[in-house]
Amino acid sequence: MDTGTCFLRFYAELNDFLPPERRQVDFPHTFQRHASIKDLIEALGVPHPEIDLILVDGVSVDFAYRARDGDRISVYPMFEAFDLQAVSRVRPEPLRVSRFVLDGHLGKLARHLRLLGFDTLYRNDYADAELARVAGAERRILLTRDRALLKRAVVTHGLFVRATDPRRQIEEVLDRLDLYRAIRPFQRCVRCNGRLAAVTREQVWDRLPPRTRLYVEAFWACGTCGQIYWEGSHFPALRRFVEGLQARADGTIPPVGPSDWKMD
Fold this sequence. Notes:
- This protein is an alpha/beta fold.
- About 25% of the residues lie in helices and about 20% in strands.
- The protein has 3 domains: about 5-75, Roll (Ubiquitin-like (UB roll)), CATH 3.10.20.30; about 100-180; about 195-264, no CATH class.
- The strands form 3 sheets. Strands 2-1-5-3-4 form a 5-stranded mixed sheet, with no helix packed on it.
- Strand 11 (about 220) and strand 12 form a beta hairpin.
- It is elongated and about 80 Å long.
């Protein structure tokens, strides 16, 4: 068999995909010649959308590069927050408007992203092929707990979500993609992702609980599914949740739109 041996090192969170003995160290790897460096790396368990830069003997290469015997390969994670102009990034340019599609295991994360104003597609019955197609065709960032799904060639932007707790998941996504300044809360329906618009009490009167008719004056409705929102008793807790995330950003956050999170 025509094989060669290269030496690899993975940096930062890419080590999450490796066994402990290969983390944060140079290690040898035997490969079949004529395989692309993308195939070589994914065979080790690291999905290509997680990678932003590959250096071979100090020179940046793309995914089509074919490894040679003796190559020393350094693999770096995404740098969404930085502009790496002096090297050849292996992915397309970062998506400056961050839109998402999520797999069926991330329903609570989808609601959190919508709460913060991010365009987020989610269904619990998406097939893997459909998730990958939507991510590629609509230039959406695929968020998933499935490593194999991220390895599909059509996926250009994606994250393997490490955390399992929904609160930690939203912090992980905002941290890794540097999205704190992009938060624009209470503008999307958490159920369907539609846009919210102000409506009068008279327009939704027949859908309101009796006490709400008496004491609440401001309402918003989803333009897609018709869901009604208003500031209910649990809204202060939601506001504190959002403000806690916004406080992580340097600088001020512009005033937000309607603040409406009591559902009928």
